[in-house]
Here is the input.
Amino acid sequence: MTPNRNPNAPTSSSHDLSSRDGLGAPSGTPPGASPGTPEVSFCAQGRRGFFTQLLSRPRAAAPTAIFAAGAAAQESRADDFPADIDPGAMIVKLLRRTTYGVTPADVEYAASAGFDGYLSEQLHPGSISDPEFENQFARLIPTPEIQNFSFAQLYQRYREYPVRLELVDTAFLRAIYSRKQLFERMVEFWTDHFNMDSLISFGGFFQAVRDRDVTRQFGLEHFHELLLASCTNAGMLTFLTNVTNIAGHPNENFARELLELHTLGVSSGYTQNDVNEVARCFTGWTCTTTNEPTSGGLFQFNPNFHDSGEKTVLGNTIPAGLGIQDGLIVIRMLADHPATSTFIARKLCRWFLEETPRESVVQAAALRFRQTQGDIREVLKAIITPNNLFAAGPKYKRPFHLIASGMRAIQPVMSQMWPLRTALRECGHPLFEWGPPDGFPDTMQYWGGGQMARWNFCSSLGENRLLDMQSDASTFYQGMTMPQQVLDEMNRRFLQGEMSGTDRQILLDFLAFDPNSPRQRRAVTGLLLAIHGFQWY
Amino acid sequence: MSQPNQRLACREFQKCSRRRFLALSAAGAAAASLPDWMPCATFAKDHRGSQPDVLIVAFLRGGADALTICPPFLDANYYAARPTLAVPRPDSTSPHRAINLDGTFGFASAMAPLYPAYQDGRLLVVHAVGSQDTTRSHFEAARLMEVGMASATTPNGWLARHLSAVPPMPNSILRAVAVSDGVPRSLVGAGRSLPIPDPTNFNLRGDPITQAYRYEAIRSSYLQSREPVRSYAMSTTNTVSLLNNLDFDSYQPAGGAEYPGTKGGRSLRAAAAITKAQVGVEVMTIELHHSNWDLHQSQNPFTGAMATEMDHLARCLDAFQRDMFSGAAPSFTLVVMSEFGRSLPQNGSAGTDHGHGGLMMVLGNAVAGGRVLTQWPGLAPEQLYLGRDLQSTFDYRDILGEILERRLGNTNLDAAFPDYTPIFRGVYE
Here is the structure.
């Protein structure tokens, strides 16, 4: 099941790492280990295997309503479903789980592409053209060129604050306008998984570089490539203070979070001694001085700081004298460890399916992870299936998701982006600014409390009260004279026909204050975004 | 509907603008299903002694270094393990020498703003206290401590379980406030509790004419939601009218207290205002940090990052205690805790790594303060936890349990701490 690799990929450390005997002593000098020349490069070009068409099987029709489906499935949780769910019936739910909000155009497009076709396309974002995002990006991002800049270029030419703002703004524009919706959902996932706080010194520059070179570069590739990119990212090494992890003076911060948060997961069996030994393996993994004119803020392996003694990690001996290979071996060891496959699979199941995913689904995804050396596309295909979607209960939108979905629903014309940043902060979700290394939580329990700010944003958005953006939601209902028609259109447009009877009555009553006034129609639209039905995906 | 300012006994809040009154009326109409609550009138006039303390739990997230905040300055092992980070003895000539607390322990000089509270007997320092769990993970340690049990498999937090074990104040609509964006694990599962990042600004914006209807609509709609979203929505709408009664803007701290303008300072100021208003809030949680307690490098307790953290902590707590000990404020207990202390040896980056035993502080009316309460385990190599860290000779639940039973009317500590029996260590007289 080894995926196709590009035969022309450069021979590099990561290539060496892909050999399964990485724990043995490699012959010759490993690339990148020569003193002072940190050269860890990655084979980014390799485009992985083809999407295998699912075998055609007998299909059963399934209800589409997210609440009904989830609830029905919960009752028969332990059982496998007697028949496969018709993928066609799961299109809307597929869209709900893999986008930042479903529009009627999305439904139409995905229905014509089919479940497999749509998912396959989404898993290969490189092939998706993105004119609307590019248009908005060109219009609203004042210094688009920084997207291509190195740390040194950013450091030399820009203040950090606008770089941080632009990162958040760009994330919003992508979530709202990009057609690569699944990819953006994955970028958000990895951003939390490999959390870095952009409020540390130079954190904005580090985050901008990391976002591009790690999360976006490898977000749908193999996990070991992503992990390697993260571990050799100067920002991550700085954030987790590995830059001062020096032979004889170890700093275990990076090592501990690498094991606990990035790979194996807490309580997976590693010991304090493993943490110590991993810390020794990563001594000398550091970052060039931030103010070097052309090479500042880059990953650097400094052999003078490296502990060259023998180490034992998770029972495996790493012989003395391997230099940078120590860390590379550990990265591959961790990426290939069964605990990692389960940890990552479970987290992905939580992200796309539900907070407490069924164990059989987690294990199937973990198995797929191991079978494919952590091919993230393949793991996602194992998770995002009609059956799994059918069984999954509703998920509560985090604030970033809610705001983006509101924007996709109302489609205002923005002239400035600060109102979105402000709303995000008020909702307690300032992107890239979660201080601890574990990333923003993904639980109802954490987010359930902060509803006032959500209600306020949603109402303001519907009523066109946000500054620096223009919308008129009443135009959605042009020519409709009956309140019932307005409600039907709201249901179709914003809730894919799944509005509850209670919500419908609440909105009808509110509309009745002044049923034909554009002002009241906008207010009703704002209220719809604020109440129960719109908070879930 | 009575005038809001008649409902509030506390002078601090008697200012009530017309605009605020209108907003209140609308919110009040929305919350029509609630009892006609009257915050102060429901309590006896002389509440001291009979009313339980309001509890404020201040968490120092990141692992605060107990050995710097409260250095054991008689211990040669301390100075040997921390060549550049140890706080000098009080009898040294260093400008950064420790403040002598009891002849054995001191305060780092940056803690000086809090020293008067210690001298006045209002502040108790508890040393070598913490969890029995071996984890050195921030998240796991903090989670276990906030759950209050040996494993984090229980969804409910210790404060939530405490609240369910004691009767609420009469007509209380909000029992606990987390001054934070999200719900801390300690309050997970607690009814009538909310995260309120800024209690001074909490209302539904937009057209005031339809505000009442929109509150009603939100209440009806969220009745369909799953827990805990549903309960949080109900608590939120209920809380609006309560908080709008409090005129935070014109709140005047007593006793010349000056809260730092930081998030921590603002949180404590709001906590004082809510406590004084006596609206039935029993528990508040806050986070106290200037930037970060997790100082793996360049800790510098004299002029650097750790000094900044300690100075901020000390000024925040001092402002709160000055404010609350002046005039007729209700009685309170404020407890400071952190997920663990830090390693005894300094690391290669002039910082310290995650450790084990740590420090708690307790401020309050009945606290037997002016002491360092500890069973000091020593810092010789064989006395260290896993050869590296300060031991925890007191369990953190010993302190919390004593607070709950002695001052919060909890007669069933098993509910709060089902798998541990707290041993009272003498937090109170």
